[in-house]
Specification:
Layout (H helix, E strand, L loop, with lengths): L1 E6 L2 H17 L4 E6 L1 H6 L2 E5 L8 H6 L1 H18 L3 E5 L2 H13 L4 E4 L12 H7 L2 E4 L4 H6 L6 E2 L3 H7 L7 H4 L7 E5 L4 H12 L9 E6 L5 H8 L5 E5 L2 H6 L1 E7 L2 H8 L4 E5 L3 H10 L7 H6 L5 E4 L5 H12 L2 H17 L4 H10 L2
Parallel strand pairs: 1-2, 1-4, 2-3, 4-5, 5-6, 6-7, 8-9, 8-11, 9-10, 11-12, 12-13
């Protein structure tokens, strides 16, 4: 079969790569043409657009880059038409993917969606659009199945693919020496995968460095961003480590983490690392989102548990004073132990491993 897969972010690249591996096990003649990244390419796909060229975050940023986005949509339609896939698989990235899916349905292509858009957070009326355009939806969060059921739309809950990735992840050897890190306890800094996030958040995180001389702060660099970009933000600060393409190795060796809202918050929890969740967008984008979003939390950990397991510092609350206060609470003591206790409940709620294999089976055998 010929598969066309569209993923627009680093997390989608990871989940897409695992899905490709699972599909190859079932379909030895599979051909993959994808929008994704290095992981999907390594898994055996032909990457026609890299996600680093697609990452526009926030309402104001989308408007500013509208010409580029419209050009990408036009190219995608032309590329699908030329490739003539047996199925198109969309991975999250709804602003782009739902537009392509509507067009593809009209053209007679088979549309499958893996990792649902977060319609339960805002614009839930788009469920009706999904019902018209998506032939099968595979969801990874336990509450999403009921959400869609309320709209009389049957979906397949497959479990969360991160459980597979983390369960199979090998314990790193010689991590500190290979990355020129000290023997001090590590505080991981995960400032996101987009330049907008990194520019706004990393400088605030780094303000804490001088207050914690007995810890080493280590930046988990995004695959698509060069170290020089991070070094420019770090400036003259000392005792800062850099790790690229080894975020899981970093988490396995960390004592605590400061994490930008997104998939990384769930990954950090599944590795049992206490964390503070950070978010700071442009002022315009934040105030627009605040009026549209209808959820209590922004981190996946809190959303899945339906309670504040990890502290979220959002927009104006994301400042040096608050960040230091919350970091203190998770380095030692009661807050740390309580968070780890809740992490165990999180894993139970997500179910078992095998998400990628379940999706591959549903795609190939349906």
């Amino acid at each position: 079969m010929k598969y066309y897969i569209i993923a627009g972010e680093a997390s989608g690249d990871l989940h897409g790569a695992n899905l490709i591996k699972a599909l190859i096990e079932k379909d030895s003649s599979a051909i993959f043409r994808v929008w994704g990244g290095d992981k999907m390419q390594a898994a055996g796909a032909n990457v026609v657009k890299h996600y680093r060229d697609l990452a526009f975050m926030g309402f104001a940023e989308v408007v500013a880059n509208l010409r580029t986005i419209l050009g990408n949509i036009r190219f995608c339609k032309e590329d699908i038409t030329a490739f003539q896939p047996d199925v198109i698989i969309y991975i999250d990235y709804p602003g782009f993917n739902l537009r392509i899916a509507k067009w593809a349905k009209e053209k007679g292509f088979l549309n499958y969606y893996y990792i649902s858009p977060q319609l339960w957070a805002w614009n839930s009326k788009r469920v009706h659009e999904i019902k018209r355009t998506i032939d099968k939806m595979f969801v990874i969060l336990p509450f999403e199945e009921q959400f869609y059921k309320d709209y009389d739309y049957k979906v397949d809950y497959v479990g969360h693919p991160l459980l597979d990735e983390i369960a199979n992840y090998p314990t790193p050897q010689n991590f500190r020496s290979e990355n020129n890190l000290s023997d001090q306890p590590i505080i991981a800094l995960l400032p996101g995968s987009r330049m907008q996030e990194i520019n706004k958040l990393l400088s605030i995180m780094l303000e804490l460095v001088d207050d914690y001389p007995n810890y080493q702060f280590v930046i988990g660099m995004a695959p698509s961003i060069t170290q020089e970009v991070y070094e420019k933000i770090v400036g003259s600060k000392k005792n800062i480590g850099f790790v690229k393409n080894k975020t899981y190795d970093l988490l396995l060796n960390s004592h605590a983490a400061l994490v930008t809202s997104g998939t990384a918050t769930l990954e950090t929890a599944l590795f049992n690392i206490p964390q503070v969740v950070c978010y700071k967008g442009s002022t315009i984008s934040y105030h627009i989102a605040k009026r549209l979003v209808s959820i209590k939390y922004i981190s996946l950990v809190n959303l899945i548990m339906d309670q504040e397991v990890v502290k979220e510092l959002i927009q104006d609350d994301m400042n040096v004073g608050n960040l230091k206060k919350e970091l203190e609470l998770i380095l030692e003591g009661k807050n740390r132990s309580e968070m780890l206790h809740h992490y165990a409940g999180l894993k139970d709620r997500l179910g078992g491993v095998g998400a990628s294999a379940r999706v591959a089976d549903l795609v190939f055998n349906t």
